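Instructor's aside before we start: the two examples that follow are unrelated to each other. I chose them only because their records fit on one page, so don't look for a connection. First example below.
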Amino acid sequence: MLSLAELRKNRTLVNSIDWAMTPEKAVEMYLEWGTGWIRGNDFVSSADDESYYFVIFDWETEPPVVTLIHRTLEGAEELAKIEVPKKLFDAACKEDGIKPGGTVHRLNRNLQDWLNTRIEGPPVEFFNMEQ
């Protein structure tokens, strides 16, 4: 599992993160072929396709973290868990709403912005988790 510092050093991986990918979109693209015909050209076209994106597992609260996922046709792998402020974690879960049978959430804009600043910004030691 990558730490925030290790993730920041891997610029190829950082530049591959799809900030618009959601858990629902990933399932539709990689697991439910043909169900999203209205999406146009937004689909998996070969076994070489892959996505990197963050999700929230709402049970991971001690401490609250977001998880970087690598998804291919073969499956999904958790690459990193990044601790985030509880206030942002809770707000993102609440904004995404309760889903029947599901506890995997997308990041909201505030959490994406906070996380992107930590990945792209000054050295990790500079940041205070309470911000």
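Example two begins here.
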Amino acid sequence: MTHSLRLALLAVLAVLLGACAPKISLYPDYSAPLLEQHISGQGENKIALVYVTGPITTNPRKSFGLNSVTRPSVVQETVAQLHKAGSDPSVRALVLIVDSPGGTVVASDLLYTELMKFRRITNKPIVVQMLNVAASGGYYLSLAANLIHATPSTITGSVGTIFVSPQVYGLMDKLGLGATVIKSGRYKDIGSPLRPSQKEELKALQNMIDSMNSRFLKLVKTQRKLDQKALNAVAEARVLLAGEALELGLVDAIGYTDSAIAEAKKLAGITGNARVIAYRRTQYPDDNVYNTATGQWAQDSFLQNTGVQINLFPNLPTGFYHLWAPELSPSASQF
């Protein structure tokens, strides 16, 4: 065999191997559209699984590493899935898988509002299935569902509001650093990390928290039809296991995703088989209901697996949150 013939055969072999090789992307392209993926079951009627996982924000998420990837925010990704489920007449009901400690006040409210709009416009029922944690803002958005299910070990509750503001003035004093702030009004730099807050500033922030939290509690009372005794217990903002949440009326049943799917079928009036689907940017082998990813990578957490409070700052900016995050303070905090 001549040298040129050997080169030609090697070239053909490389092309064939390249065509057969699986496509692997270390840095996935999140401009790829969400596509319907079959999870289980058969039939014309569909039950759509929509996942809300991780901290709830309107900010795009960036992965860490040399080649960082920007991914859609939790709000954007969830709303995109709602639009797909709402525009498909074959989708008869939605099972919302919630695994989140909460997030910003605005983002939590946006998702609640979008879910209520989905129900109103499409007349399709929603059943929430809580996983590890569905606390604070994770519970807030769950209030939009027709039914709420939790696993026996789900942590939920934490119905409350918190203002988070990192403090760096002590460190600056030690380093001999300072800052000049020129402001137009006495409250213009309220919550500034560069100085201690004054008593009247703390009072003003507390009033804002109380107002935001009043809306949260009002939604709980209205949507869950709680009596005053149960509402008073919920207003303590404690985290609860599923059993106590069931007793207080915060959830409707204790079970797993299969029971949530069965309830969704019942609410939709489906008597026969139904196809369970999800919307993902990546096709997964052996896909099932426990895959909470829409793309190749799981979401980053606020805390980035670190217990050092200074590392919280880039990922937890100053603001108001419906969030259960005990890592924020070594002492007891109001949530």
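Residues 199-224 form the longest helix (26 residues).
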